[in-house]
Each structure stands twice: as C-alpha cells, then as structure tokens.
Amino acid sequence: MARESSLGEIATKFLANLPPRERELTQSEVFKFVRWYGWGRSLAEITAPELSNYAEQVTASAFEPLKKLEPVKALLNYARKEGLIKTNLAAHLRVRKTLPRFAASLKQSSSSPVSLTPQGYAQLEAELAALKSERPRIAEELRRAAADKDFRENAPLEAAREYQGQMEARIRAIEAMLKAATVTEAELVSMTKAGIGSTVVLRDLALGEEVRYTLVSPSEAKPAAGRISMASPIGKAIIGHKPGETIEVSAPAGVLYYRIEAIE
Questions:
Q1: How far is the C-alpha of 149 from the C-alpha of 230, rounded, in Å?
Q2: CB within 8 A of 68, min separation 6: which ones?
Q3: Which residues, listed in sequence order, are joined to residue 183 by a DSSP beta bridge?
Q4: Within a domain: residue 129?
Q5: How many Cα atoms within 13 Å fall on the side-chain side of residue 201?
Q6: How many angstroms from the chain centroid is the CA of residue 80?
Q7: How many alpha carbons fall within 13 Å on the CB side of residue 119?
Q8: pLDDT-above-70 percentage for the chain
C-alpha cells in the first residue's frame, strides 16, 4: 500500500504544476497554510471546523482576506481533483460575515459589564438613535401588512413582526451596554502595555511578516478591519504584554511565535 502524501508534499506538487508567475503569487499563502497545520500532516485529517478557524485567523490578520484564501482554496480543489480528498473542503474557507446587527446582541449578556473605546461608545449611541428613528416606519409597515385580511400567507406581516422584535431586542441590548459600559479614554491607553484600545504591531518570527491589530471589546470587533476582540485567542495572547516581548498563539501544527514590535 502506497504511503499517503503529507500536506507539505501535496502543496509542493500543486505549486510545481503552476506557471512561474502564478506560482510566485500563490506560494506564500499556500506555505502559510501548510505551516499552520503542519508539513507532515495528512490532508485527510483536516476537518471542516479547522478550516473555518483558519479562515477566521486570516480574516483577522489580512487586509484582503478573500485574496489570501484563494490560493489555499486552489490547493484544496487540486487535491480533490487528484483524488486525494473526497469532500469539498475548499467550501469551508469562507470569510465570516459579521452577524446581523440585531442578532449580534444575542451573543452576549446585555447585563455584563463591558469596556468600550470612545469610538465604540459613540458608534453604539449612533446605532441606538438610528434604530429608534426606525420605529415609526416599522409601525406603518405593520399597519399596512395587517390590512391584508388573508393572514394565512401574509409573509409581509410576519417579516415586519420579526424585524420589529429583533430591532427592539437590539435597542434594549444597546441601552443596557451603554448603561454598564466603562469608557477607556484615548489618552489613558497605554503605549507600553497592550490593553483595550491599543493598536499592536506584531512580527511573525517564522515568516518575518508584520501584522497590525487594534484590541477592542467583543461588541466592537471587526476582524476584516483589523479590530479584534480582546477575548479572542490572539487578543488574549497580546493583552498585558510590552514591545519586545514574544507571545505564543496555539495552532494545529503547534505554537506560533510573534514579537510585539510596537504599541501605537
């Protein structure tokens, strides 16, 4: 029985089949993926949740995550075409969309204390005002939909009711968050130790590349914009550390090391 090729070997074969220019543009992202999971690991062992986690990692660190994931998708599609895997693993490499603004409030307890940056606090206040201004319009939509006497298939009425319920839940959640929030003033953000509101420059010690994150509360997190939650794995690893220190982030292949270059 032939030995099963490792992830690193499959990646090498995949790259060797590409035209030189395409290989040059692709190999960096392919080898990042291989490094994350381990050169000697079997591709058949990689699971859909692990791929989703990798996509989240890329989304948190890349300016254009879709472009960063395309080479990895091409690798997985190549492996499937060659009969090395049977399932469409590439389908699990998706940039996670932000939750709908209403559903997002259900992900955390509105009564829990939360730390916000001044920008985050102002954004919540603006969202609250916008939602409250929607109330008259939703009420009018409900009135018009309810005027249809055929309640058996009154989809507009159901949609309006669902939207109203989500909107009111979000309003209550924002009001509770603002009431319980403590605001980290910009001038109090430490430039010597990473904390909420800090923008941290990290260097990947294996690849030599730099990434930049701003640490924010979970309610403010937008990974695609470089704003990561202080409760995320990377955020937890950064919090409390200083420039020059090395942090460790767990990956399927083992521990990856980053050095904090600066706190801005």
A1: 51
A2: 29, 58, 62
A3: 116
A4: yes
A5: 11
A6: 27
A7: 12
A8: 81
Antiparallel, parallel or unpaired: β 210-216 and 199-204: antiparallel
Residue 1 inside a domain? The answer is no
- Secondary structure (3-state) at 248: strand
For residue 142, give every residue at least 6 positions away whose Cβ sits within 8 Å of its Cβ, in sequence order, or none. 157, 160, 161, 164
2: in domain: no
Residue 222, φ and ψ in degrees, nearest 5? -140, 85
Q: Residues 60-100: pLDDT tens digits?
A: 655 577 888 899 999 999 999 988 888 888 888 876 544 44
Place of tokens 């800090």: 198
List, for residues 37-68, the tens digit of each pLDDT value. Answer: 888 888 878 888 888 878 877 776 555 778 88
Residue appearing with tokens 């319980």: 180
Indicate which CATH number applies to the domain containing 116.
Answer: 1.10.287.180
| Tokens matching residue 247 | 């942090």
Amino acid at 212: R
